Amino acid sequence: MKTKSLAVAILLATTSSQSFAKNNFSKFYAGFGFQMGDLQLDENRENAKLGAIKLEAGYDFIPYLGLEAHAIINTRSDDVLINDDGGAPQGKTEFSYHGLSLFAKGTFPIKHVASIYGLAGGTRGKFDTDYKDNNNAKFNEKVSDYEWSFAYGLGMDLHLTPRAKLGLEAIRYFDKKEFIGQYNGLNLTFSYNF
Q: Are 159 and 115 spatial neighbours (Cβ–Cβ below 8 Å)?
């Protein structure tokens, strides 16, 4: 009896996967969304809360494996207070982030209505800073030009139609504490398969 039940379960899973591949597989897709970003600086400073527009484009080689590219365009920067050695406020630094990322993407369907996926790849990110001291003397101070970092994340797509999807994902785009810190993005994206 257990063997028969296992065989039925495997058959249903295979049928569901084949049906998903047949109904939802379209090689090229593109999307547009919004990002809430969290820049985790060193432990002596508070985090910077950033906002951005996210553009994405992807290509699926098979229904379960593909490549996906992200372009993150900063729309909201944030000020972080800078203290001197004694803890007194010395000024503040305004942070913003822009980045390009390329990921390998593995997708697993949940019946016909949704799918979960994992991303792993790299990011070329740029952090711009504007420092203002207590006398309001402002100048531009580049932390660096574009810097590379390993990037990874998890997400879930809700299939609105066979071609349209609404996705929510959490991604660590940047992870270099020795450079500036960690940058995490929570993305809400609408994408369409062509």
A: yes
User: In total, how many domains does the chain have?
Assistant: 1
* Tens digit of each residue's pLDDT (9 = 90 or more) over 11-46: 344 444 444 444 555 699 999 999 999 998 866 567
- Rounded Cα gap, residues 22 and 124, in angstroms: 35
157 CB-near residues (< 8 Å, 6+ apart): 114, 115, 116, 117, 165, 166, 167, 191
Q: Which amino acid is at 4?
A: K
Query: Residue 4 has what DSSP assignment?
Result: H
Other CB atoms within 10 Å distance of the CB of residue 81: 11
Neighbours of 8 (CB within 10 A): 10
Which parts of the chain are beta strand (E)? 28-40, 48-62, 65-76, 78-83, 89-110, 114-133, 138-142, 147-159, 164-176, 181-193
Which domain does 25 fall in, by range? 2-193
- What is residue 14's predicted lDDT score, i.e. its pLDDT? 42
Residue 76 tokens, joined: 């909201």
Q: Give this prediction's pTM.
A: 0.77
Tell me, what CATH number does 156's domain have?
2.40.160.20
In angstroms, the CA 39 to CA 74 distance is 13
Record the tokens describing residue 81, joined without a space: 């207070």
Cα atoms in the Cβ-side hemisphere of radius 13 Å centred on 96? 16
